[in-house]
């Protein structure tokens, strides 16, 4: 499981250090793609395969299904870590997520997300205000 929040930088060549706690779980090869809310989603191969199977089952006759799968798969790229534990993020993905220097890397259960620091801080501030309401609407945690 991926969890936690880490601050890193993207260098001028588009490389970013992957948090050490995420490296083993991601494995030697993983997939980076466009995510929702202007971030990037990073999946280990086993999780990517599960997601791919689910998306293949969407009805291609539905306009929204076609649009989502196009958006999701066209941005996907298979990546590997270099010897320093860095991943090279493709330019179109950096542009999509507006990654220019400072970024935030978060663990979200079965995936990792990479955010522009600015976009993450705005998103977090907005969501923090309504966190209790969001939780109440989606799940009963039974604490």
Automatic annotation (TrEMBL):
Keywords: Cell cycle, Cell division, Cytoplasm, DNA-binding, Repeat, Transcription, Transcription regulation. It holds the Pfam family MraZ. GO terms for molecular function: DNA-binding transcription factor activity; transcription cis-regulatory region binding. SUPFAM superfamilies: AbrB/MazE/MraZ-like. It is found in: Cytoplasm, Nucleoid. PROSITE patterns: SPOVT_ABRB. InterPro entries: MraZ, MraZ_C, MraZ_dom, MraZ_N, MraZ_sf, SpoVT-AbrB_dom, SpoVT-AbrB_sf. Its main location: cytoplasm. Residues 5-47, 76-119 form the SpoVT-AbrB domain. One of its GO terms (cellular component) is cytoplasm. GO terms for biological process: cell division; negative regulation of DNA-templated transcription initiation. PANTHER family: TRANSCRIPTIONAL REGULATOR MRAZ. Belongs to the MraZ family. HAMAP family: MraZ. Forms oligomers. This is Transcriptional regulator MraZ.
């Amino acid at each position: 499981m991926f969890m936690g929040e880490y601050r890193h930088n993207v260098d001028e060549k588009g490389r970013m250090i992957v948090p050490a706690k995420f490296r083993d779980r991601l494995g030697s090869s993983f997939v980076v793609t466009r995510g929702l809310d202007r971030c990037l989603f990073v999946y280990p191969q086993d999780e990517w395969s599960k997601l791919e199977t689910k998306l293949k089952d969407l009805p291609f006759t539905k306009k929204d299904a076609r649009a989502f799968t196009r958006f999701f798969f066209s941005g996907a790229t298979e990546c590997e870590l270099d010897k320093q534990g860095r991943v090279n993020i493709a330019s179109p993905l950096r542009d999509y997520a507006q990654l220019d220097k400072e970024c935030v890397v978060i663990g979200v259960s079965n995936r990792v997300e990479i955010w522009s620091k600015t976009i993450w801080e705005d998103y977090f501030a907005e969501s923090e205000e309504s966190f209790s309401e969001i939780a109440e609407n989606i799940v009963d945690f039974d604490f």
